[in-house]
Write a structure and sequence with these properties.
The complex is a heterodimer of chains A (114) and B (114).
Chain A: E1 3-5, E2 10-14, E3 19-21, E4 24-26, E5 33-39, E6 46-52, E7 60-61, E8 64-69, E9 74-79, E10 88-95, E11 102-104, E12 108-113
Parallel strand pairs in A: 2-12
Antiparallel strand pairs in A: 1-4, 3-9, 5-6, 5-10, 7-8, 8-9, 10-11, 10-12
Chain B: E1 5-7, E2 10-13, E3 19-24, E4 31-38, E5 42-50, E6 53-57, E7 64-68, E8 74-78, E9 87-94, E10 104-105, E11 109-113
Parallel strand pairs in B: 2-11
Antiparallel strand pairs in B: 1-3, 3-8, 4-5, 4-9, 5-6, 7-8, 9-10, 9-11
The chains are: A mainly beta (114), B mainly beta (114).
Chain lengths: 114, 114
């Protein structure tokens, strides 16, 4: 069974600054997907970024990028130029290559301060 | 294209009753997964349906069941409700089992059991 751990329950950052959210996971699979989801107060779960384990290149989506360290089983999210709208709960999730089951971490509540 | 819709959005039930929640996936999506979100347990996988067949099931008691119809719409049912079933129930849809990375979540159904 897969496990996902987010060791930072809460984080805060000033607007326009950069923040990094940590995530570690455990699996015996060699190929899989990793995701960061954002859940704002509206509770709508929004996909921020995804990484396929067989791709060595770190994924980037505009201000969001990841640092994927497969050997260390680490998958951190960097948010550059933080905006007030980035305030949300962020979940790291593990996905299998077959099927849609996601295993989520505990979440990190990020607050962006003006 | 319309997103994933869930009905009802809010529900209040009494302990011992049963409840049925509905999820309509994005048009053309054939896979639907359900998750339970609580403050104590976080996000937990309930089950996954593809082409009217349950493909995967999480570690939940038999009181939790689901089904998928030929139009890919899915329902989940909880019988003999307990106070601990109070949660946000999220469903997610994806095109097929081979595209797990393209999962889209609905807004959720907030169930309160009194």
């Amino acid at each position: 069974a897969q496990t996902v751990t987010q060791s930072q329950p809460e984080m805060s950052v000033q607007e326009a600054e950069t923040v990094t959210l940590s995530c570690t996971y455990d699996t015996s699979e060699s190929n899989y997907y990793l995701f960061w989801y954002k859940q704002p107060p509206s509770r709508q779960m929004i996909l921020v970024i995804r990484q396929e384990a067989y791709k060595q290149q770190n994924a980037t989506e505009n201000r969001f990028s990841v640092n994927f360290q497969k050997a260390a089983k680490s998958f951190s999210l960097k948010i550059s130029d933080s905006q007030l709208g980035d305030t949300a709960m962020y979940f790291c999730a593990f996905g299998e290559t077959s099927g849609s089951r996601l295993t989520f971490g505990e979440g990190t509540q990020l607050t962006v301060n003006p | 294209k319309a997103g994933v819709t869930q009905t009802p959005r809010y529900l209040i039930k009494t302990r011992g009753q049963q409840v049925t929640l509905s999820c309509s996936p994005i048009s053309g999506h054939r896979s639907v997964s359900w998750y339970q979100q609580t403050p104590g347990q976080g996000l937990q996988f309930l089950f996954e349906y593809f082409s009217e067949t349950q493909r995967n099931k999480g570690n939940f008691p038999g009181r939790f069941s689901g089904r998928q119809f030929s139009n890919s719409r899915s329902e989940m049912n909880v019988s003999t409700l307990e106070l601990g079933d109070s949660a946000l129930y999220l469903c997610a849809s994806s095109l097929s089992l081979s595209t797990p990375y393209e999962q889209y979540f609905g807004p959720g159904t907030r169930l309160t059991v009194t």
